[in-house]
Amino acid sequence: MNTSDYYYLGLDLSTQQLKCTVMNDTHAIVLEEAVNFDRDLPEFHTTHGAIQNGDTVTSPTLMWVKAIDLLFDRIKNSPVAGKIRGISGAGQQHGSVYWSKTGIEKLSQLDPKKTLEEQLSDAFEISQSPIWQDASTTRECRSLEALVGGAQALADLTGSKAYERFTGNQIAKIYNDREDAYDKTQNISLVSSFIATVLLGELAPVDSPEGSGTNLMNIETHRWEDKLLDHCGGVSLREKLELEPVEGGSALGKISPYYVERFGLHPDCAIMPFTGDNSATLVSMNLQEGDCVVSLGTSDTVLVYLKQGAAKATTESHLMAHPTDPTGFMGMLCYKNGSLTRQHIRDTYASSNWDEFNRLLQIDTQGKTGFYYDMQEIIPFAKGIYRFEKGQQVQEFDNPSANVRAIVDSQFLSMRIRLQRMTTVESKRILATGGAAANTALLQVLSNVMGLPVYKQKGMNSASLGGALLAKYGVVDHGPNEFKEMMGHREAEEPELVCKPDLEVTKQYAARVDEYVKLEKLVVDQQ
């Protein structure tokens, strides 16, 4: 078969759904499917894909397994199933999976007549996987920072200070509080390497960008740091992780025969390392220096491509390994209170109607500033709703509908301030992605706050498209740093200009920065 007949599958196991994108050799998308956890798998009783109990937030690991069953059943019925030659993808960052002593063994003995769910029902020592929304590990975070000499010292070593959602701190909580379950755990995967493991039929390593989201990997060497491993999980943690992180662009092996026999995939289909959802989004955008991705979804994230020398580790941002440039970095800001919090404000103040929300978005807040943290926020570390009028804290605005503009202003001002602290490279344009990027009124405020034009790429499933591109990168012959050349052969459309900033409005936002920083500090001081 000529490589022009090859297809590449990208998967994205996000918080709320398992999505897939299949593209051809010229990068045209030929198939997109999704399994929504709440709608398609109601028996797992999740809300927005998760189960929340105070600050503890998990997802049923078996739900993800069943979603793989359902998604591949749909792919099986497509004409491209047998032509897929590479699979990669993404998982929601930081989440972790705890394999039982027989779990990995079961993967090598799968019966194609039975579902994955049937055969892996007892493959996990811990049935609920901690996910990125969890905020229950503050004790473990402070302990890890103290080990190395403080938050900045840990950021210098691993790329980030200790965050509650980071995998090392989640592992440490289980190690401290659930000793029996931890001892019985044979292997630990991240969500991304879990999917690769299920497809490969044997334990798959994490890639280096995913290692960056654990507080366990040295950001310079891309290797696990022993003193961090020992602190978070004892001497056995290295054995449970088993494999060192790997770089993208090299095959891990062929797909398990189970998928060939049950779903009609090609036996030569290669499995590549899976990455995190944010780094996969960066791949799909083919970022250059000066590009800034703003992903507006369940969480809001800001991503920038940073070359050596332009990157600074700070205690409010993340410096992560780059998925296709081993010497480069991905700078990231992550906010928990994204689309769901905006939706809550829409429901409360705009009659549950996005058109009304967008109308109210046009009205200036006139000295009103709000901070909206329904969930424990990451940047800054705060929870609750706080409103200020002309610098004074109030219970509610005199015009409650001002909450609509206030939440959007507040979210985007925070991005502007932190981005400037993270890098000396000046941004030239914003590439918007995520579900909320469909709202042009929202993007216009983003453009005005940042003072930059906003572009949008065709196709909204950017993480799964990034996975498909990584799949191709692993299949084609390439030298180091040749991803850019591969992307030059694509048919995909260039991003579309959606809006330009009103520079007079941008000046008004710039004048608000100092006041915003002062009020945010008041909020943090109230925690």
From TrEMBL:
Residues of the Carbohydrate kinase FGGY N-terminal domain = 131-283
Q: Does Kinase show up as a keyword for this record? A: yes
The entry's family comment says: Belongs to the FGGY kinase family.
Would I find Cell cycle among this entry's keywords?
Answer: no
Q: Which residues form the Carbohydrate kinase FGGY C-terminal domain?
A: 293-473
Judging by the UniProt lineage, the source's domain of life is Eukaryota
Keywords in UniProt for this one?
A: ATP-binding, Carbohydrate metabolism, Kinase, Nucleotide-binding, Transferase, Xylose metabolism
UniProt catalytic activity: D-xylulose + ATP = D-xylulose 5-phosphate + ADP + H(+)
The UniProt entry's GO CC annotations, sorted and at most eight, read:
cytosol
Single biological process term from Gene Ontology: xylulose metabolic process
| Role description | Highly specific D-xylulose kinase which participates in the catabolism of xylose. Xylose is a major component of hemicelluloses such as xylan. Most fungi utilize D-xylose via three enzymatic reactions, xylose reductase (XR), xylitol dehydrogenase (XDH), and xylulokinase, to form xylulose 5-phosphate, which enters pentose phosphate pathway.
UniProt xrefs under CDD domains = ASKHA_NBD_FGGY_SpXK-like (cd07776)
Top-level enzyme category: transferase
Signal peptide as annotated in the record: none
Query: Can you say what this protein is called?
Result: Xylulose kinase
One Pfam family, please name it: FGGY_C
Q: What GO molecular function terms would the record report? A: ATP binding; D-xylulokinase activity
Please tell me the species this chain comes from.
Answer: Phascolomyces articulosus
EC number, UniProt record: 2.7.1.17
